[in-house]
Structures are given as C-alpha cells and as structure tokens.
Fold each of these.
Amino acid sequence: MSGPTSGTTGGTTGATRWNERPLDVAEVDLGPGVRAGFSSRAGGVSTGPWAALNLGYHVDDDWDRAYANRSILGRWLGAPITMTSQVHGSTVAEVTRYQPNTRRKADAMVSTAREVGLGVMVADCVPVLLADAEAGVVATAHAGRGGLVAGVVPNAVAAMLERGARPGAIRAAVGPSICGRCYEVPPGMRDDVEAAVPGTGGTTSWGTPSVDIARGVLAQLAEAGVEHVEHVDRCTYEDERYFSYRRDGVTGRFAGVVALVG
Ligand SMILES: [Zn+2]
C-alpha cells in the first residue's frame, strides 16, 4: 500500500533535489476513509544521524530536507501533515486546516476536516492515532512519561467525544516506542509513574527500575472505553529501523500520521 513516489507531483520544493529511497510505513486500519500509519527511518532524503526520513525541524537536521521528508510522508498519507510543538503536556489542539511549521504547543490534536493530516513526532515516546470513521473524527496523542501522567491520551479521546465520536466506535493504534525492558528511570521516578498510572512500573532487562509507557497508554485507552486497539509493538531502542533518542542522542524523529481521506 505504501507508495514511494519518485517524481514529485505535490509541487513542493526539495524532494526532487535529493535521492529519495523507498518508504517503509507500518499502515494501520482505523476504519473506512481513514488513512493512518507509522513511518520509520526509511524513505527520506536526510543524511547522517537523521537518515533518512527525519520529520523534526528541532533536531539540527537541514531544514529543507526535513521539509521534503514531511512532503514525502504527506504524499503517502494523501494529505499535508500538521505537526505541533510537543511539550510533554496534555493540551489538545483542534486542527481545521493544514498549518505548516506551527509553533502551537500541544501534545494532542483532533480534527473533523477531510484531507487534513495530523502527525505526532516521536523517537522513543508513544505515538497514538485515533479515529471514529463513522463520526468522521481523527486524533493524535504524544505520550511520553509526562504526557502519560498528565492524561494526554484520555484528553484526546474526550476531545473526540465532544465532536460526536463514540468510545465503542473509536479505533486506536499505538505505535513503536521504547519498551518497558529498555526504558530505565531512577527508582523514585518509577514509583511516581506507577502511582499515577498503575501497571507501568517495571524492571529493565538488566535489572534496574523502568517504566512501560505503552502499557500505561493501553490501560488508559481501555479505561476510556476504547476497545479496538492495535499495538505496533516494536521497541525503538532495540529496533534500528526507528529513531531512538535514548539510544542515539542526536537523531531524527519518525511519526504517526492520520487523516480522513477519500
Ligand atoms: Zn526495548
């Protein structure tokens, strides 16, 4: 299904200036008329630590290449992608039209507009995509430790319900993130997160305290009544197909993207 489009048609600058490699997007089914998936490192035009499909403008990559990469992923999605400035909070921004390079601070987005792409950037945090195809509502959430505790995922679901979605009709996809065997934290931090979201505290594969953010997200979705959940259960820290901030430090960002299309 993924269509690496060589020979740009979007009228965007950039993507034709560099060699563009095939995309590898993990597509997820969030219902009829909804296009959604999680990108990987594959398919873009960035080089070095950002190779190749870096989508972040804030990670010291060449801005034009990051812009071209967003255009490439937008073509896969079938809609230009709006991304916010993510601050590990719980604010939900409504997006009614494409907003390029927005500095709007929000860790979740909701939209009822067709062909308006929403994108959540990550490199270890948990990207969450949501859709109620029947009601015509889509949403994203960026859940790191802070967002999980602050409730960004239930807030995104609530914003959907305010726009006509029903919990039983919502489909969710939880994307690649650092797993509970790899995400080491200080003991006090593990205890705090475990207290806020029970079931998240654990131990790394090397025996130190850890947090399992994805597990917490899945619990919060269940609590919100969202039963149809797909987990693309790949660990960014272990799987080099993905950017991992914890593993690499200077690195790019991949994304979960969703749009009402067709
Ligand atoms: Zn792992």
Amino acid sequence: MASTSKGPSRGTSTGLPPAQAKRDMPQDEADTVIVGAGLSGLTMALALAEAGLSSIIVDRVDPRAAVAGRNDIRTTAISLSSRRLMTVLGAWQAVADGAGPIHDIRVSDSGSSRYLHYDHSTVGDEPMGHIVDNGALKTSLLARLADHGDRVTFVEPGSAAALAVTAGRACLTLEDGRVLSAPLVIAADGRGSRVRALAGIRTTTVDYHQSAVVDTIDHTEDHRNLAHERFLPGGPLALLPLLDRNRSALVWSERTAVAERIAQLDDAGFAAALEERFGDSLGTMRPVGPRAVYPLTLTLAESGIADRVALVGDAFHALHPIAGQGFNVGVRDIAVLAEVLADAARLGLDIGGVPVLRDYQRQRRFDIMTMVASTDGLTRLFSNDIAPVRTARRIGLSVVQQVPMFKRAAIRHAMGTLGTLPRLLRGEPV
Ligand SMILES: Cc1cc2nc3c(=O)[nH]c(=O)nc-3n(C[C@H](O)[C@H](O)[C@H](O)COP(=O)(O)OP(=O)(O)OC[C@H]3O[C@@H](n4cnc5c(N)ncnc54)[C@H](O)[C@@H]3O)c2cc1C
C-alpha cells in the first residue's frame, strides 16, 4: 500500500505503529536517510536503531506489499557471522524455526567423479550457515523495525531524484519534490543504485551472459543438510538444503538464452533437465515452484563513499551468486558502518564527516576486493569446457580437498568468521 501524504509517512502505511516523537527532529530529518528497503536497507536501519540512531527509509515500493506479493521468491544462505548479527538485532528468532541448517558443502565438477567436501565439524559445532526465505527474513526485520517506531520513519513510494550537500547535511530530493535531510545518506538501493549515480560514483560492470533460474525442488532422498554446488560449463548449479529434508532450494546458473528456455519447461521437462545435469544422488526430483530468472552481472562501485554518502549491499558490490555470499558481504558492510557511526555518535562526532566515512571504506576494502576477485575468478574458471582449464580446476579441487589448512580457511571464509570482526558479527551489541 502506498503512502500518499505530503510529508513522509511515519510507518503507518507499512503497518508499523506511528512514530512517537523522533527526538526533537522534524519529520523530514533524521540521523540518516536510507534509500532502499531491501534486505540491506532494512538490516541497516535496524542496526542503527539499536545503536540509538534514527533513520528515514525510502523505497519506491512498500516493503510489506513487496513481501506479500512475493516479489522476491529467493532464499538466502545466511553465514554464521550474519546469523550472529541477525540474532543480536533480534531478527533471527522469528526465522530460526524455518531455517535449514547447512552442515556440509560438496563441490563437484561435471564430468568428474571427484569432489571437494567441506565438513562443518572441521572447525566446530555450528552449522556453516542456514537457508532462509527472503520474504520471511524481510518480515522479521520489518517487525523488529516496528519495535523501533520512534527511530524509524518509512517513506514509500519515494524515489531519489537529486542529492545536494549543504551546511553539513545531505539533502535528498524525491521525484515528488519532497526533501529529506540528514548528516548521512546511505545508499542501499541495489545494483542499479540511483543514489550512487547521484553521488557521482562510477562502477565497473562485468556481464557474465548468465542468468540464474530459481526454483524449489522436492526430492525422494534425504539431503542430510548437505549443500551441493555442481560446476557445469554453462554455470554453477546449487541445491541448498531447506528445513524439510526432502526439499532444496535450486539456484541454477546457465547461459542466459539456455536459462530462459529451461525456465519455460513444464515440470516434467524441468526435472529431466535437472537430473541430467545433477545426477540422481537426491533421487527423483520434482520442481514445486514458483520459478524465476535473475540476470547475473558483477557491479562494483569504484568507491564506497562520497560526500555525506555511504554505499552498502548490492549498491556497493553486486556479485555472482556462485558462492552464495552477496548478502553476507552486504551484512559485513552494515556491521562495520553501524559500528563506526555508533562510535562517532557516542564521541559527539559528525557521523557524515570525512574521517568517519574513510574509516568505513578502509575497513571494508580488503574483504570486498577478496570476494569480488574470488567470485569473479571462480565464475570464469568453472563456466567453460576448455580441456586445460578443466584439468587445472580438477587439480585445484584435489589440492584443497587434501590440504586441511586450505579447507579450514575456505570453511571459515564461507562462515564469515575469518579476520577481525566488528562487534555485531561477533554477536555483541553495536
Ligand atoms: C539468484 C540469486 C541467489 C542469491 N543467493 C544468495 C545467497 O544464498 N546468499 C547471499 O548472501 N546472497 C545471495 N544473493 C545475493 C543477494 O540476493 C543480494 O546481495 C541482496 O538481495 C541484495 O540486497 P540489497 O538490499 O542490497 O539490494 P536489493 O534487494 O536490490 O534492494 C534494493 C531496494 O532498493 C529499492 N530501490 C531501488 N532503486 C530505488 C530508488 N531509485 N529509490 C528508492 N528505492 C529504490 C528497491 O525497490 C529495493 O527494495 C543471491 C542473488 C541472486 C541473484
């Protein structure tokens, strides 16, 4: 449902309770303006609210209507560190019962019987991650934001049209002429970010000419909480264990024309094409839909910051889903940004000032470059059928399989627990 009021709606059109006095700020001002109410924008607003900072969240669609309309039918593999953040923000509890734990991951290459097996018990007792329905996670985040009605204001529909910085504030003009202002604007408006363009930040884009077909698959064999990643010449095919042990989420990347053809197949044809590529280790398979196709590109912003602007999530870096890490990397942006902003606010510093934003950029650079390089490298290495490359990657898989140190590092990387972590990713309050 759209909000039609001249000023920002105070959450009512999203079903949120009306905000009490958001301290003494006018309705069009807050500590931050967040553009984008996808997974990143909602998580960002919640992390800031928990730190005592207020936000106005702008989206061109009402997030509740988007969830109700099942605009996003995907599931997301949530890493251990992302789960810790969601737990400390109080958003995990509502999705925990429906989340499918991933205990092990098996990586295989088509045409070879060898595989690489990651076992969670190599590094501890915790599952490597959980598969969560995107709609359920957004619903949980929205419910938690409702608890922070005094710090969170929703504006929807609202589309960013112009951005100006004056007298220590960023002013965002919406297409309908409304003006919102804050010391900092956070772009969480996805891979085609308008705020990023308005801030003059350029991007590097790689078109993989691949698209991902997403569906839900019932299978006669128990998945045993094992996630499969099978590399095929057209792209990787992932089957991710859901809570029901005879049901998995499918993310099947293929050359775009092939993906579009596959997506149009009837259920029997789809199952046959899937079994031909994946084999029968999960028994007989049956798609239970709905089905959708997502074009795949790498989009990387040349900077994560500009004058009184910070980028998070896909607006900063949109990755190929080959490693199921896109949102997890965005969660790491959010954890770091929330921490530097909370610390600055506690010290009475300008939260949109250059030193604070530079600190954010500096802390995020290495992780993002590593993730971009690894997902892009894996996509290119595995999405072809050239004989010497095929041989090289099989040797690579065997080496990682046989060297425990490499395996442990890869598992921790997937769990998001490598390196120095900000407080939220350690499961501590911001
Ligand atoms: C097939 C597939 C499978 C994936 N699987 C995984 C996985 O298993 N694990 C994982 O970690 N990641 C995964 N990802 C990546 C993950 O889905 C994304 O990283 C994540 O959804 C990005 O969220 P976001 O909020 O940053 O952007 P988006 O979801 O794109 O949200 C952007 C929001 O901004 C709004 N918006 C856009 N423009 C404007 C504007 N001008 N004004 C106002 N609002 C605007 C939009 O309406 C939207 O609500 C997958 C991706 C794909 C394609």
